[in-house]
Amino acid sequence: MGIAPLIVTVLSLIVILVVSRKNLWGAIFIGAIILVLGGSNPPTVLLTSTKTMLHPNILILALALAEIPLIGKILEKDILQVFNSIDRRKATILGPSIFGLLPIPGGAILSCPIIDNVMEGKGVDEKVACNIWFRHILFIIYPLSPSLIVATTIAGLNILNVIPFYVPIFVVALTIGWIFYLRTLKPQPTNSKIRAHDLIPVMLISLAPLLQISLSIVGLDINIATFVAVSIVLVISVIYVGVPIGRLGTLARKMKIWNFSLILLSLIFYTRVFVMVSAATISRIKFGTVLVLFVFPFVLGLLTGRVQLAASLVLPILLSGDGFVSAGMFIAIFSSALSGYLMSPAHPCLVLSVEYFKSSISGAIKKLLIPSLLLALISLIYGIALDMFLLY
Questions:
Q1: In a domain, 194, yes or no
Q2: How many CB atoms lie within 10 A of CB 211?
Q3: Is residue 85 part of a domain?
Q4: Contact at 8 Å (CB) between 239 and 231?
Q5: 193 within domain boundaries
Q6: What domain count does the chain have?
Q7: What is the pLDDT of residues 310-342, one digit of tens each?
Q8: pTM higher than 0.70 for the full model?
Q9: Rounded distance, CA 15 to CA 111, Å?
Q10: Which of 11, 203, 303, 364 has the smallest number of Cβ neighbours within 10 A?
């Protein structure tokens, strides 16, 4: 196999960036079709990817994704009241971070109203970037982060042993976010106090993952569990706020909730096509150390919008050569993949946030580019230093 799949992959990314200004999910589908046509067996790739996208569990998840923005919109005023009771710079960090811990697809939408309110006067691109940044940087030290669990498992590392080494990078990420997004945001102290009653909306939001986890523990498929959990919370939210059924339909049409489902389906389709067309070629390419630890994972995270996929392609390269992955190497690779993922057009949280704020992917990427590169470069230097001085 030659470099043709790489060229086609880059071309598809360019098309996604251009067409997404008009239609996000349509752009991702078009980018995927370009990959299909660049493959060696287009009919098979197209059929397999379509079957993956239309799997009943995926369709159920797509329905859940359409319900999530409705929940956020219904509870928006009550949620904002809670975060209006604290300094808005703290709310800008805590809002996306807290909702980022909820293992629910599309959860980035829930923190969008908070960011929109506390960053009043800022541009929509900056709001998208801030929402994405503070939502995801906690993943590098969160032991229940699916991406971190998958990556450490592939690397053969104990996640609880890696996290302590990752704490300095988390502090760096917080500092970068503060400098680029919050430094010029003036504090607005408030005299209002949070009452127990005010926390009910936050508790309702938290109920969804609790139900999801409980249902999955008893054996229900995770996607079905997600749909059931989100549906239950939606019904409770409607009753709690007292939203008329007619008003619910109006909200759904106003927010165009079907776009969120179509975005998910397009991303599933794109990722499957990428794996079938480009992954095999990429995994065979031999790079130098810096490229493996930095460029390769960054580009893969950017192209795929999947940290797990980037890790699954890069980590085996090290394992096949040295037979092991050190904590330093892992931190460099995972941070680079995460940095590329943060501003990937195939990243669901980014495209959903762009949809909410009516921004553009290219505009959001411009706001994320320098902070993401800084995080990746600092992690690379830190990782190499760890690798030099530590045996683990």
A1: no
A2: 18
A3: yes
A4: no
A5: no
A6: 1
A7: 776 677 666 655 567 888 989 999 999 999 999
A8: no
A9: 29
A10: 203
